[in-house]
Each structure stands twice: as C-alpha cells, then as structure tokens.
Amino acid sequence: METPATNLNSKLKAKLIAKYKLDSKEINLEILPVAYRKATMNMALTTLACEKLLTAAAEILKEDIAFVVGTHFGEVDSTLDFLSTFYQTNVARPTLFQNSLHNSTLGFSAIQIGLTGPALTISLSTETQGSLGLLVDSLLGLSSAVLICFVDFIPEKLAEHYLENFPFLKHTLNSATAYLFACDDVFEKLNQPALPFQKFF
Amino acid sequence: MSIAKVSGLGIVAAGGIRTKEALFQKCLRSESLPLTSGLFKNTSSEDDALKNLLPLAFQDLQSRCGLFSAVAMNAAISEAGWSAKDVSDSGFIFASTTSQVDLWEKTLPLYQTSDIDAGLIKKTALHQSLATPANLLTNKLNITGPVLHIASSCSASSQAIAIAAEWIRTKRVKRCLVGSAEIHSQLTEVGFTSLRLLSQTIATPFDKNRKGINLGEASAFLCLEDADLQNSLSPWGYVRGKGLTTDAFHPTAPHPEGFGSERALRKALATANLSSKDVDWIYAHGTGSVANDLSEALAIANVFGREKLVTSTKPIHGHTLATSGALESVLGLMAMKKNIVLPTIGLVTQDEKITVAVAKQALEKEINIFVKNSLGFGGINVAVLFSKQRST
C-alpha cells in the first residue's frame, strides 16, 4: 500500500530513538559470517552498527525506513587498491571496482539488512554536514523512520594526511555512528523516551 | 502545500556541447556525440574554451568537474533570473560519484609505494572527498542555505531533484539549485570495462543485440523554486511526484523483475496523486546494458502497460552516471515544452522480452506529464514526475 501525498505531514520533526557507535578496532573481518566475505571495513562497520540499532525498532517495516550513509571519503581504501593494482599490473579487478564505488557501502548494508525504502549516500564536508538534520526531516516526509550512519575508514598510512586536511574528523575516523529517527506516529507506537539530540557532530 | 517549479536549466556535455539547445538539437536530429573507445569525451583544449565562458571568480577552478559545473550552473541561474541574493539564500544540492577525480586518481595511490611523496599525497587527499566541488561552488556563490552532496551512483541527481522538491514543498527553502557533474577518469573507464559493461560501438538501448553502455561527460543544473514566487518567466515545468526505493538485491545488478523500480514509479504517481493513465511519456534510464534495460522495461510495463512511449537518449550523449537524471530531466523538460517525444536512436530489433513501446524517432505529441526514471548501482531507484501545468 503506497502512502498518498495527502497523508504526508510537512511539519514532522525528527525524534531520535537510538544511537550506536562502532569502532573498527572492534571488528575482525576474518571472522565475520560468510556474507561478509567481500565486505570492506566501511561495509562491515555500517551494517553491524545499523543492525544493532534496528533491534530497538523491530516494529518498523524495512520498506518504511529511509537509509542514509554519510561519508567523507567513501570506499577510499578499495578505490586506491583498485587503482594501485591496475597501475602496477594492468589488471582491473571487478570486485575491487565494485567495492570502490561510494554507494557500495550503502548497497551492501541494504542487502544484508533488507532495507528497501529510500536510500541515499551523502558525501560530507564542512559545508554539507550541517544540512543533515534537514535531510532527515525531509526523508520523514517520504518514510516513517530514518536510519543514518556516518562512516569513514581509511588506510593507516593515509590517516595523518587526511586528518591534517580535515581535523574535525579526529573523533569519528575509522568508526561508524548510526542514528535512528522516527516520525511522531511511529515514535508513539515504540513507547520509549526520545534521546537528547543536538547535532550530528 | 507548496510545489516546486523549474525556472532555469543549464547543460555542458562532451564533444563541445556548451548549451542545452545544442544537445537538444542533437537529440532532434538523432545524432550521437563523437565516440572513441566507448567514451563520449571532451578534449583538454575544450576546457580552455569553457574557462573563457566563466566570470573571473570561477577562473581558478582546477578540475574539469568544476569547469563543467560552473558553466552549466551560471546558465541555469541566468535563465531563472535569480539575483545574487536569491542565489545566496537558496539551498544547493550537488550530485557526483567521482567529483574531482582528475585531481587525485594518478597521485593518491602512490601512498603505497616506497618513495612516497608526503606533500603530494597530502595535497591530493584534499580533493578526494566527493563534496569538494559542492563546497567550492557554495563558497563562490555565497550560498547560506542548506547544502548537500549526493553520491548515490547513477540515481544521484534524480535524488537531488526529489530532495530539493521536498525542501520546497515543506517550505524549508524558497529556492534550490540542483546540479551534477561527471567527468571521465581512468577509474571509471577501467572499472566499467572490468565489469564488461562498456560497448565499443554506439549503445542500443532495448535492442535484442545491445552490447552495453557508452560513458559520457556532462554537467546539468536546474533552478527549482516555490511555484508561489512571482516570476515573469514561464516555468519549464513542475516537480509533481517522486518515488525513491532500494532493491536490496545485488551490488551492481538491478532486480531482474524490476520490483524496486516498479515501486519507485508507483510511489512517484502516489505522491502526485496521479494515475498511470495521466502520464504521457516515460523517459527511461535505458543504459543499453542487458540487465538494466530488461529490468527497467518490466517495471515500466507493470506500471504503465505497453502503450506509453518510452525513450532513452543515452546513445546520443552517453551514460553520464550521477548526472544522467539531471541531464535527462533538462532534455525532458525542453521536450515537454515543445511537445516532442525524444528518440531512442540505434534500435533495430527490439528485444522480444521488452514489451514497452520504444520511440525510435522524434515524434510530435502533446506532453503534459512525463516521468524521468533512474536506476543505479547499489539498487537505487528513483522516479521523478514532471508536469507542464501546476495542476492537472
């Protein structure tokens, strides 16, 4: 059953249901289930953090959840692996290319979790991160809940260079932080208090 | 409730295309841009020509992505008649999957070598975040409204149009600039080749013998504004509905039965309070890949039946990835204004599994509503409904 436009409430205000942060140090890619065989660290961080968070809202249909992955550098580890391999051997590895795409993190997590609602990958920077609250509110006009996950894992050798250019990342690099928001109707059904929420960063 | 009208359009594309009219004429004449090794591509000398079209404030843009964007953006803003304050107060949503890749793809991977040049790595890392062009353009235009960069594969700019329309519908902004740019890179070319998706000849969407896609380069911008704002110009059209869904099926292939795309099309109709009968023309994603065209055609047939005319213009300008939704929305709005269904060139023998009515030639037809459909890697589906009139 589709949601007619007349039922969409333009005055929805996002309420935070749950938040969860996962650090790359807590994950060993080698021992994850077989579904993670081709997963990057970004994919594993995002999927595991979001799965954990959704246990707080099992009542919400997966097709009613908008999913946003916010990332500054995307799958930079896979991208650089793909390019390096190609430059050194002249062989282009399709799996590395597939994993190198910015949107591949979201695609992997959507498959693992079964999310079929609106889904967007957002690239973040100083100018764009302030608009995310507005994006969440807007997506609540198209779905009942919004799951948003910030993730950035980069190769260790590059960390210093990235942090010098983007110092505000020092508390979030190599981790995923997921937030689950809901509209008023869903929130009331969940029967739990809203978490305090000021801003994403 | 507000509705978004489209008041300005701008395009830059490969092969020296610097105006939307030039590309639209190519469509009407069923002409492809020059193709080399599966790519519709600009030469570097054309970058200098583009630079000459720009105001001084934009002359320092280093990336082809920035140049393409600035020219298309200025054309759209100029056509919309927005003042500097209008632009400054507007929102801005930019879409790209590679952004300034030309500034880092050759140097950043050097970090793995033993003779690492830390200075060079640091400098190129600065350009790798996809949001850098959005930031650059935001600063040059002094935009103070909300800014987003969407990187959701080939559906990204269609998502940008949908979100901008939602911001206007809910009165978060009065105006929103939506744009996208995608340039060629070795990363993209080699990557698509590795997936065996690149056709060395002109793509033939919906054809039984289609062999894959051609990659294009382009930037496209749309100025969206609240339809209640006074503007002496006649708008190109209105954003009436939008549907966004995800397949959750495969990293790069669409759902074989088009379920996700079908749901997006149905949602677009529902948000517009319209039925499939109200739609006059379907502007498909139509990449020319075996999987996309079959999946998309099934979705279209399930929602609209087999009679509605369907077009893909990708054999003319190539698949411009994240930009394709915005680029084709611009062409679609121009076609709607002129009541012309654009052609799908190169179709000889339609795939018998594809049962929709593909328009092979440009046709005169009253178009009051059309849908721009998009699919992307990661299973991202978007449908945007445009109408000629504010209400029907």
Question: Treating each run of at least 4 consecutive H or I residues as one helix, how many helices of chain B?
Answer: 12
Reading the helices and strands of chain A in chain order gives: EHEHHHEHEHEH
Physical arrangement of strands within the biggest beta sheet of chain A:
1-5-4-2-3
Low-confidence stretches of chain A: 1-12
What share of the residues of chain B does DSSP label as strand, in percent? 15-25%
The 3D shape of chain B can be described as globular
Q: What summary fits the major beta sheet of chain B?
A: 11 strands, mixed
How many strands, what sense, and barrel or not for the largest sheet of chain A? Answer: 5 strands, mixed
Major sheet of chain B: order of its strands? 5-4-6-7-1-8-15-14-9-10-12
Number of strand elements of chain B = 15
Largest protein interface, residues of each chain: A-B, 69 and 72 residues
Number of helices of chain A: 7
Mean pLDDT of chain B: 95
Characterize the overall form of chain A.
globular
Give me the strand/helix succession of chain B.
Answer: EHEEHHHEHHEHEHEEHEHEHHEEEEE
What's the oligomerization state? Answer: heterodimer
Number of strands of chain A: 5
Structure, described:
With 201 residues, chain A is an alpha/beta fold. Chain A has helices at residues 41-54, 76-89, 94-100, 104-113, 132-139, 156-165, 184-190, and strands at residues 15-23, 65-71, 119-123, 145-152, 175-182. Chain A is built from seven helices and five strands. A five-stranded mixed β-sheet of chain A has the order 1-5-4-2-3. In chain A, helix 1 packs parallel to helix 4 and helix 2 runs antiparallel to helix 3. By secondary structure, chain B is α/β, with parallel strands linked by helices. Chain B has twelve helices and 15 strands. Chain B has an eleven-stranded mixed β-sheet, with helices on both faces. In chain B, strands 2-3 form a two-stranded antiparallel ribbon. In chain B, strand 2 and strand 3 form a beta hairpin. Chain B is globular, with a radius of gyration of 20 Å. Chain B starts with a strand and ends in a 5-residue tail after the last strand. Classes of the chains: A alpha/beta (201), B alpha/beta (392).
